[in-house]
Amino acid sequence: MAQKGELHIRNKHNGQYDFPLLIENYPPLKRFVSLNPLGVQTINFFNPQAVKALNKALLISYYGIRYWDIPKQYLCPPIPGRADYIHYIADLIQPDRVAKDLQAEDEDANEQKTKRRCLDVGVGANCIYPIIGHTEYGWTFVGSDIDPVSIENARKIVTCNPVLAHKIDLRLQKDSQKIFDGIIMPDEYFDVTICNPPFHSSKEEAEDGTLRKLSSLKGTKVKKVQLNFGGSANGAMIIAKNRIRAAGCILPVAQTNNLPKEMGLRHRSGLGMSLETDAIVIIVSEERGKISVAHNGNIQVNVTGEELQQILSRSKSSNANQTTGTKQKDETDPSSK
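and the corresponding structure tokens:
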């Protein structure tokens, strides 16, 4: 097993990125490549467009994927780390075959691949685990997700790449409270089920790892970071009276086709909450910092700070008037005594 901080021995991304090769295979990457202070080629990993271009170049160069794209505001995964996950799964579900593969470098690579069926829970719009699992090991996949946009985008990736055709089946989970029900068919069998939670045993370990990454990317020591999860799982955090009541919660997702495609699960969950409750739901885009507000099943986008204050003030005044009206009725209505 690789030491901490190292990639798996079979990972194609050990060592420095081969930028001349990557640029040759995907020329649009060139405008994002520059030299760091040590004279080594790199990209700005804080630029989402640069990371996306790097991913496209890696998928073309090492996995034969000619088309890959994701909608705005959707996760752009680090491919070397995702590949590591797949390689370690291979060690678990086919250790004998892996050992033989390492000894048979001169054999046809396709002859070495073993048929396995995998279920990827939360496949995401990027479809990255099925892509790597199939191209590296010949596994077939079922990918599930509660987000229709993710399923649609992943399906487009599969359809546009002949190497993936009929090897990856994308299924929409219509009940956000369930994982396997409605996805696994009767008599259907899988060798392994995978998902992508944060791999941390504690909040402290998660923070340490994030600080190391940010310090490495920025070139200066970062001392504090704000995480978007509680060290155990992604999802919503419920806070009441200044206390955390629950974390990793799944919110109701609005099942509608009327939202723009660039609106992802965050906006759909916000709209879903406004349909299920009388709350005013404030949604902030992680990528662009834009504010949206959902209320009574309607969503208003690109809300300014001033407009948000007005919305909240009107709501507060309305609630106060309703409370006053109810109190006055109770005091004058004989039936209330």
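(Above: one complete record from the training split.) The two ends are 75 Å apart (CA to CA).
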